[in-house]
Description:
The chain has 359 residues and is an alpha/beta fold. It is 45% helix and 12% strand. It is built from 13 helices and 8 strands. A hairpin with a 2-residue loop joins strand 5 and strand 6 (247-251). Residues 1-7, 29-47, 49-77, 146-151 and 153-161 have low confidence and may be disordered.
Amino acid sequence: MKKEKSLSLVALIRPLGNSIKEIKEEAGQVALKGTKVQAVAGNIKRQNRRKKINKDKSDWKPGDIKVITAASRTAGREEKWGLVLMGGGARALAHIGVLEALLDNDLVPPVITGTSMGAIIGGLFAAGYFPPELEKLGGQLSYGRLAGLRRARIPIPDKLVDYLMLESYQKRLLRRMGVKQGDPLGEHLRELVNDVLIEELPIRFGCNAVDLVSGQEVNFTSGPLHQALRASMAFPFVIEPARFSGRLLVDGGLLNNCPVRLARELGASRVFVPDVHRPLKKMAMAHFDSAFIMVHRLVQVVLADSTESKLPEADLIININPDVDTFDFTRIRKIVNLGKKITLQNIEAVRELAGSPAG
């Protein structure tokens, strides 16, 4: 019998990323030809992308990954492990280093779930962006504008919250005046992943958000990836809620900053969580000098609880705890290096969880 050729997940991820980049280049050329042409081209691009993803497997060169194969995506074939990436703003950029360490050791999780910044990193990785590219995108992934405020030495979060509240008021005023406002963040995410669907990803991926209309957690395991990421990262008072399908969606971390159960629902029997959250510390009474500070503190309390109450559900937790503020995107390299360093120190535990033999 002819031995079936296995296909590594890396071999699947890489062409998807390349396909998205080609589509973005094509879109830039088509944009000059008008919206009608763009609509036709969009359908053609989707068809071409799917052909590329499903093309003859003999074109790929397995070997980057020794254990995890494409067959592992099919439920019930074998036990799978999952990687859960929590939110945390700049602190969550440590997840890039985690992924880099895993790739260096031939470990690609068949299942990834995440929330907020963790969803962004996990989703982009599943769509073909590798750690070096993610690091370059680091300053743009979420609060790039806030990084500029940080360099200008404007205090965070004290003055930041007041500033954001004022900006939010100005946007509401513009809407009342009939001035249309776009969604630059949503548009940027769509530029990064085009119109790829979550169910098309070679890695099983899921992320969450909170619907303010129903008050419930919403899990995204299918549909447009860019919409799911936009909803998951809408940090309260910083990024406006995502609005679609009759929902008003904000950061999933408010209810569940560590979506372990979602990873299990996607087929992971064992779950690994890199812990980047910072335990809540007491604040001096004198610091509560405005309603905005109180609201910001309330968000911190909710996020801390939604992390610490979910962590015990994981099978393996490694504590990374970057020493940076949530909004400080000025030390990306340091954060990424820390994530990689701590993961490498614990790589044998991850390998055991993944059921992979030592390299």
